[in-house]
């Protein structure tokens, strides 16, 4: 491009205003972008905003992408009913960019505060309902589809699987009526829906949805979407009991992820690989992976991730017969989960500790552990069926009839129930 210049005819037509828009994009714009690094940077920023705001118009993404954070400040500290009233009454808030920003915040909140994620997805729906003919109606339907999909995903995490199903049915309806053929939107909705089918234990459907999403992400050249969906597909395989399939997929995807672009995805893929290796009782391979995961976790410290890593270290120690370090790890992790109100995780690590005591015939330690379970029963995220199972474990400990196999069965039941109730 260094020696490329516009022809006299092209230059004349451009100055006269008769050059077609497509010709301007194909001939004039590349010439100026090649000559000006500042313009190239700004072009790249516009592309980034197009992805972030989720709109095809460069003008919309620049103007609304910059305005949306300022509008959100007017809503952020209000209660949900007040936010809805504000959106209903203020036309300034009826813009595409604000809806996209609210959806992004719903996605961020879905695991840390799923109830808030539900409110945010509903608020985004309030905004999209007020978008007028300044926007293409088909694109508005696609945006509504994403709102419903985010709402369904947040409800899944809350354990409200029936209402999550309803939300995804509405997302599918909007997507079918929109007809834009936007691959990334369809892929994202398929990806989220696969997580619902996983929670419902409908594994063949979950895998089919994940595979369709992967194809669409590949066709659109979205490598990030491919990596993310591959990691989620491995989770479906793991929960379906196909540990070898999950391990093979994770080993493949962890090699393909660009660590400079997506260091968190590298960590997630390695973390899930470690979990699968332990579930498959391939402890030697798991132990060899530990140093790499410790290094990755240390460079991206997340308290709960570090807790789960310590838990898995305890499981590896238990298998290797290092009972002291295993017991210490389980005790540390149990205490931290309880302090965070994470009752389900505290129950599961308590059962790993119980397995250690049962293997060693430590009856008194088992009885003491069973008496320590009361805070778990009081946790909000432990549902009735899980509490019944834990009470059975407590009674078995008190009556000195606990076995390693019984503990394994109760732990497996709790894991199944947790997934089926959308808690993972």
Key terms for this structure?
mainly alpha
Describe this structure in words.
The structure is a single chain. This protein is mainly alpha-helical and 424 residues long. 78% of the residues lie in helices and 0% in strands. It starts with 7 loop residues before the first helix and ends with a helix. The relative contact order is 0.05.
Secondary-structure topology with pairs:
Elements: H1 8-16, H2 21-35, H3 37-53, H4 58-73, H5 80-89, H6 96-109, H7 114-128, H8 137-158, H9 161-178, H10 183-199, H11 203-219, H12 223-239, H13 243-256, H14 263-279, H15 283-299, H16 303-319, H17 323-339, H18 343-359, H19 363-371, H20 374-377, H21 384-398, H22 404-420
Helix pairs in contact: 2-3, 3-4, 4-6, 5-7, 6-7, 6-8, 7-8, 8-9, 8-10, 9-10, 10-11, 10-12, 11-12, 12-13, 12-14, 13-14, 14-15, 14-16, 15-16, 16-17, 17-18, 18-19, 18-22, 19-21, 21-22
Radius of gyration: 26 Å
Beta percentage is under 5%
Number of strands: 0
- Average pLDDT level: 86
Order of helices and strands: HHHHHHHHHHHHHHHHHHHHHH
Q: For the record, give the distance between the C-alpha atoms at the N and C termini, rounded to a whole number.
A: 52 Å
Query: Helix proportion of residues, in percent?
Result: over 70%
Shape: elongated
Which structural class fits the helix and strand makeup?
Answer: mainly alpha
Discrete helix count: 22
Question: Major sheet: size, sense and barrel closure?
Answer: none
Unreliable residue runs: none
């Amino acid at each position: 491009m260094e020696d490329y210049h516009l022809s006299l005819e092209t230059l004349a037509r451009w100055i006269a205003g008769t050059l077609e828009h497509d010709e301007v994009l194909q001939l004039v714009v590349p010439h100026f972008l090649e000559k000006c690094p500042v313009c190239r940077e700004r072009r790249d920023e516009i592309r980034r905003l197009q992805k972030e705001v989720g709109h095809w118009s460069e003008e919309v993404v620049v103007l609304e992408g910059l305005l949306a954070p300022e509008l959100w400040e007017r809503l952020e500290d209000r209660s949900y009913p007040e936010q809805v009233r504000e959106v209903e009454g203020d036309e300034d808030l009826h813009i595409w960019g604000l809806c996209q920003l609210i959806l992004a915040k719903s996605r961020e909140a879905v695991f840390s505060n799923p109830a808030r994620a539900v409110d945010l997805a509903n608020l985004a729906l309030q905004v999209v309902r007020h978008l007028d003919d300044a926007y293409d109606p088909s694109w508005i339907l696609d945006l509504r589809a994403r709102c419903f999909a985010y709402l369904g995903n947040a409800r899944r995490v809350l354990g409200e699987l029936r209402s999550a199903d309803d939300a995804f049915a509405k997302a599918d309806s909007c997507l079918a009526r929109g007809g834009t053929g936007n691959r990334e939107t369809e892929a994202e909705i398929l990806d989220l829906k696969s997580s619902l089918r996983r929670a419902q234990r409908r594994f063949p459907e979950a895998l089919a949805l994940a595979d369709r999403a992967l194809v669409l992400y590949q066709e659109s050249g979205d490598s990030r979407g491919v990596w993310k969906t591959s990691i989620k597909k491995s989770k479906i395989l793991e929960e379906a009991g196909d540990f070898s399939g999950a391990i093979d997929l994770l080993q493949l995807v962890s090699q393909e992820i660009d660590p400079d672009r997506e260091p968190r995805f590298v960590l997630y893929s390695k973390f899930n690989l470690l979990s699968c290796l332990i579930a498959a009782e391939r402890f030697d391979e798991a132990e060899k992976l530990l140093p790499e995961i410790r290094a990755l976790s240390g460079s991206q410290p997340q308290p709960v991730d570090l807790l789960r890593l310590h838990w898995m270290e305890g499981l590896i120690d238990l298998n290797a017969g290092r009972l002291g370090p295993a017991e210490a790890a389980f005790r540390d992790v149990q205490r931290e989960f309880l302090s965070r109100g994470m009752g389900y995780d505290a129950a599961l690590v308590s059962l790993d500790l119980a397995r250690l005591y049962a293997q060693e015939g430590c009856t008194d330690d088992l009885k003491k552990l069973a008496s320590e379970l009361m805070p778990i029963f009081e946790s909000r995220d432990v549902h009735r069926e899980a509490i019944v199972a834990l009470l059975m474990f407590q009674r078995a400990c008190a009556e000195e009839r606990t076995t390693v196999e019984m503990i394994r069965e109760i732990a497996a039941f709790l894991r199944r129930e947790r997934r089926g109730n959308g808690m993972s």
